[in-house]
UniProtKB/TrEMBL annotation:
Its job: Role in flagellar biosynthesis.
Similarity comment text for this entry: Belongs to the FliR/MopE/SpaR family.
Major localization listed first in the record, in broad terms: membrane
Membrane topology type: Multi-pass membrane protein
Cellular localization per UniProt: Cell membrane; Bacterial flagellum basal body
TM regions (residue ranges): 12-33, 45-63, 69-88, 95-115, 135-155, 176-205, 217-239
InterPro entries for this protein: FliR (IPR006303), T3SS_IM_R (IPR002010)
Protein name as catalogued: Flagellar biosynthetic protein FliR
One Pfam family here: Bac_export_1
Species assigned in the record: Noviherbaspirillum suwonense
Keywords recorded for this protein, A-Z: Bacterial flagellum, Cell membrane, Cell projection, Cilium, Flagellum, Membrane, Transmembrane, Transmembrane helix
Amino acid sequence: MITLNSLDINALIASYLWPFTRIMGLLSIAPLFGNNGIPARLKIALGMLLSAIVAPTVAALPAMDPVSIGGALLLAQQFIIGIAMGFAMRIVFTAVELAGELCGMTMGLGFATFFDPQSSGRTSAISQFLSLLTLMVYLAANLHLVVLSTLVDSFTSMPISAMPMGGDLFRQLVGWGGRIFSAGVQLSLPVVAALLITNIALGILTRAAPQLNLFGVGFPITLSVGFLMLALTVPYLAVPLDRLFAEAFGMMRQLTAGLPKI
């Protein structure tokens, strides 16, 4: 006859609760999984399924009551780790969206905005186009599965431990967050540079012919040049996106190696 006491029940609950918390932290913010269009019940079901697969392979867990103060702190720690890993991948999509915003504003399409289901906010048409293009690349390359694989590997490289997190994790995450601006400017640079040359030419033309209606002529020209440059640069986006995704996965692995191991 099998008998279970309260300690055994707490240990059984903790063996699934703490991995589930880290997994849900990633699923709540990672690209595709964190989309607000995906029902919360589906995310929870996926988290429970992954927890059931991962929990038996997790190393020895700290002997701690899940409903104690220490257990609550450990729960919060695992959730923060999951969010940090998901945020590291989310940076790539945010950089692409920033590139689209820069291109749209330079082209004069800053007023053309749409509802973004991923961020539940307004975004420009060019930004939405580039974001959806990046998402298709993300899915076509099965990178969403690589994200889950990296999450599962994190339980080996960063075991669940009661030891506090160091400041290196947050410092690395903040430093990686600055990649939004550098990558966004780099991705939008061809379009912005072409439009800058176009605006300089229009300025010289207006100076030479003051009677020329700049607003009537300049707006169609900048739109045409902007769309032409987008058509020329989109086929070559695979290389910088591949590099950004590789950097994001490297950051995810670096973050999961930031805590001492037991």
